[in-house]
């Protein structure tokens, strides 16, 4: 029984939250890695793109709620999500046309694009603030739990409860579908292969008749959609606060680099590696240890690091991976 | 080097966490093609005639240079280092700003076309380096070669695999993992996938071993005997002339000698200067 | 194309004219009172002083970016770390804190560092089973560290926690802390650079981004260090206090002779004091940096920056040089951080926002002119002025633009959020400079 309790506690406090968080990071990292692979720079504006997409989705959600539309047990935000994705895609396409294209056509050094993305970050940050302000917004509605603690206890008779929030389950399901669709697109369709070809060898892609501008447009649309989905899922799971989306840039970059920049598969693996480590290292293991070793009474919480240091975890993992495997877990384009 | 490059120099370009130099392009893909015109009567199948020009606003590299290839022939461009061999081929392919001269293919003047449109017009070009998509499989490489085609490409792909049985076995492997010779085969195969009217090879044997080189030459002969004209730049003048129906010796961007491979090999001056006696 | 145009336009008068324009802006701010300027010398000097601190920060970044091409996106961390120095150096000691856990804390930190050093040595020296050995060392070291560290921290934080709960300072002169701030930041930079620059191609950007976040997190959460988010106030000043000046009849008389009231004059006097100190530091750094750049060392740095491959082929140790300049630049940033905390008299770690303290500094460097020290100073003071004034000008502009609109929700919303316009404005300034004058206002010669 104690072992079962320990497993339930592990699921409840570590595995479920970390899986949801990992899926969110993976979606964010996929966007970063695609832009790195195809446009050849790290997009510092990605966090703010996520925030912008989420802000639009929230506004649309409020509109739907005001109109009395709802999805029953599912959050209304799911209906508003396509609006957010479309608006974000339009914004990044406009940004590309106004900012990045100029340097791309001139074959400017990629570092200029990084600098430009800092400028874009400021503008998008300001736009998001204009749209929705800097306060925390909660926009999840519908059923809060798929399984709640009490009914789980009644169902199983275990002492330890298990809660599975709707948003967590949704995150994992949506992330799975999106990732599957993306891989199908990249590996099975002509357009997707053209994107990979462009990432591999720009000149040869051009000489093969692939339109570079079309590849770039597709990349931005996909990256914007991924960013919006990641942002909305993160916001549903926790809450929306513009600054948090800026801060999440570090774990997202860490995930993309740990996996190997430019490798979509790596981005997913990296997202989960970072998420599991973050949660496992900042979780107080006292309760689980109590079930496993009933006689043992440690005086601490058995927490390796306080939750406020979760960013330190992404950083340490990043450093360790880079020291031993400079190209990331899956061989990326860097180096 | 663009403006902004000269501004920031090499700053930050070593930082792999922000910039990705891998596979960066150098060809200006935004250049629009001009109209094509009629060819001249009695033209060879492909001819770059009286070409003069250089890269961008740089000095001229080619001076009144003429290169032509007839159907079913192999034409080679040879010459000492820095003679402008690759430049002449790039000029025919539209990667150079021609000040003078014209390029005509199959009765059409294509001087104003950009490289992408020349591919559509029937040129198959194999660059000297970076001529494959390393992370994609052999099959995907060929598929990308046929990107502009909307019909069924399976037959062409099988023909390529028949021509290069060694890479056929590795069709599901990433092209970047193959040996140097096999990679060249993939590169040639990629160019063949458009079913071009003429195949242009820029030093296909650079950096491969002698055995692989012989095999590659065999394949190229087979392609030409199949009816497709082949134009290639070669470093190994001796071998190249052996298989050439026509050879162009360039010196400092201008035609020095022209003739069949046999003729030029018999020419004392050519032998002394380029073939080492 | 634009470079040529810009190069043609670059005259030796360019920088002096731009600096004169900048000075004019500050004079207007100090004298003219209308909807655009405050007409208060106190405000003008306050903006200038913070601008000078930004300028020193920008100089540090410019050393790294302009001289060596290193992309540091953890400026906020080095700035925050430097800010720790006034707290630890200049504050008077906290009674009982040292006795409560000081030595144990120091031992814990030494054990922590020792563990890392030992792990590195083990990795280098051992051949077989070194992975296991390193893991054992790290785990054992971590357990020992936590066993020493946690009780010490608890004891210190329990010591008069309402007022202190921190380890306290050394009671030394605050000016000394500026140098210590530089040392702190340099030490952190060395550790980061050693790891991130030593790899085959470097990963400095992401590493600095990470360390920046971590340093700020430490400052927010380690209450024993500087009381965390409970803030430390009343950090000693190198200048007189306003209240003392106001009570000094001689000063009041002196102020009156200039036509100022005592309250206003005391503020101005204190700010001029800070300004002088900051200017001394700023000019010394520029002098040293320019001398260094003209020395053989500087020529080598530029050679490496312009062509790393060639420099490496000539036997220059590029990584070591990069590490050197990264540490030096970070030291300058750390010093600026200490100066900022000294001026504010307050350590409030929640204020360390990367947008403001990392990326705005980058806007300053790019706008000013990468690689040019005077450009960095000009860009920093100018951008800082605009950043502050955008708070005033933004609403005014929006008010003007929306005046034809009917009163209602949209107009109100736009007016309410007009303060956020400055983010958009800064982004646009950066994008426009990158596009039309990528070499900045004062290009490198």
TrEMBL record, chain A:
Q: Where in the cell is it found?
A: Cell membrane
Topology with respect to the bilayer: Multi-pass membrane protein
**Originating species:** Paracoccus marinaquae
- Which key words are in the record? Amino-acid transport, Cell inner membrane, Cell membrane, Membrane, Transmembrane, Transmembrane helix, Transport
Report the superkingdom from the record: Bacteria
Q: Which family does it belong to?
A: Belongs to the binding-protein-dependent transport system permease family. LivHM subfamily.
Query: What's the protein here called?
Result: Branched-chain amino acid ABC transporter permease
Q: Which CDD domains match?
A: TM_PBP1_LivH_like (cd06582)
InterPro entries per the UniProt record, alphabetical: ABC_transp_permease, BCAA_transport_permease
Q: Which residues cross the membrane?
A: 6-39, 51-71, 77-99, 111-132, 168-186, 215-236, 306-324
Automatic annotation (TrEMBL), chain B:
* Cross-referenced SMART domains: AAA
Q: CDD domains given for it?
A: ABC_TM1139_LivF_branched (cd03224)
Q: Which PROSITE patterns does the record cross-reference, listed alphabetically?
A: ABC_TRANSPORTER_2
Recorded hits in Pfam families, A to Z, give: ABC_tran
Example of a GO MF term: ATP binding
Q: Where is the composition biased (Polar residues)?
A: 1-10
Q: Which PANTHER family match?
A: BRANCHED-CHAIN AMINO ACID TRANSPORT ATP-BINDING PROTEIN LIVF-RELATED, HIGH-AFFINITY BRANCHED-CHAIN AMINO ACID TRANSPORT ATP-BINDING PROTEIN LIVF
Recorded hits in InterPro entries, A to Z, give: AAA+_ATPase, ABC_transporter-like_ATP-bd, BCAA_Transport_ATP-bd_LivF
Q: To which protein family does this belong?
A: Belongs to the ABC transporter superfamily.
Please give the name of this protein: ABC transporter ATP-binding protein
Q: Where is this region: Disordered?
A: 1-48
**Keyword field contains GTP-binding:** no
| Residue span, ABC transporter domain | 46-277
This chain's source organism reads Paracoccus marinaquae
Q: Which UniProt keywords apply?
A: Amino-acid transport, ATP-binding, Nucleotide-binding, Transport
Q: Does the keyword ATP-binding apply?
A: yes
From TrEMBL, chain C:
Q: Name one Pfam family in it.
A: BPD_transp_2
Principal location: membrane
As for membrane topology, the entry says: Multi-pass membrane protein
Q: Which domain of life is it from?
A: Bacteria
Where is it localised? Cell membrane
Any idea which UniProt keywords this protein has? Cell membrane, Membrane, Transmembrane, Transmembrane helix
Identification of the protein by name: Branched-chain amino acid ABC transporter permease
TM ranges: 43-63, 70-91, 97-120, 132-149, 169-191, 203-219, 272-293, 323-341, 361-387, 419-437
Does Iron show up as a keyword for this record? Answer: no
UniProt organism field: Paracoccus marinaquae
